[in-house]
UniProtKB/TrEMBL annotation:
Its EC number is 4.-.-.-. The keyword Acyltransferase does not apply. GO terms for molecular function: 6-carboxytetrahydropterin synthase activity; metal ion binding. The lineage of its organism: Bacteria, Pseudomonadati, Dictyoglomota, Dictyoglomia, Dictyoglomales. The active site is at C22, H66, E107. InterPro entries: 6-PTP_synth/QueD (IPR007115), 6-PTP_synth/QueD_sf (IPR038418). Binds 1 zinc ion per subunit. Transmembrane segments: none annotated. Belongs to the PTPS family. QueD subfamily. It comes from Dictyoglomus turgidum (strain DSM 6724 / Z-1310). Zn(2+) binds at H13, H26, H28. Pathway: Purine metabolism; 7-cyano-7-deazaguanine biosynthesis. NCBIfam families: queuosine_QueD. Pfam families: PTPS (PF01242). This is 6-carboxy-5,6,7,8-tetrahydropterin synthase.
């Protein structure tokens, strides 16, 4: 079973290792989707939505919202942001009955990435 929670945050970035308009400073209203895979516990929940919200806010939203993401990671593409989010949440969401399954980072309404913890070398600091 998959539990899903969606978040939004506003942030600015520029892609220094990119040739095109995105190398200039600009911003997005990002959509972040966190997917947890698991089985319901004795309370009938994979993880409490409120608890998931609190963890994601503390570990991710409070850091990225209204930030200049280049000060947090190198080359802050949607791909690198997804890896960074995964690293911040993976251990916090590891339980006997569930684990982090997927991170989605959407830069625009129709452009985003999905990351499921695959090992990718050299993607973020």
């Amino acid at each position: 079973m998959f539990l899903i929670r969606e978040f939004k945050f506003d942030a600015a970035h520029n892609l220094e290792s990119y040739k095109g308009k995105c190398e200039k400073l600009h911003g997005h209203t990002y959509r972040l989707v966190i997917v947890v895979e698991g089985v319901p516990d004795s309370e009938g929940m994979i993880i409490d939505f409120v608890e998931l919200k609190d963890i994601v806010k503390e570990e991710v939203i409070n850091v990225l919202d209204h930030s200049y993401i280049n000060e947090i990671m190198n080359q802050p593409t949607a791909e690198n942001i997804a890896i960074w989010v995964w690293k911040r949440l993976e251990k916090k969401l590891q339980r006997d009955n569930c684990h982090l399954y997927e991170v989605q980072v959407w830069e625009t309404e129709d452009s985003g990435v999905i990351y499921r913890g695959e090992k990718i070398e050299g993607c973020s600091k």
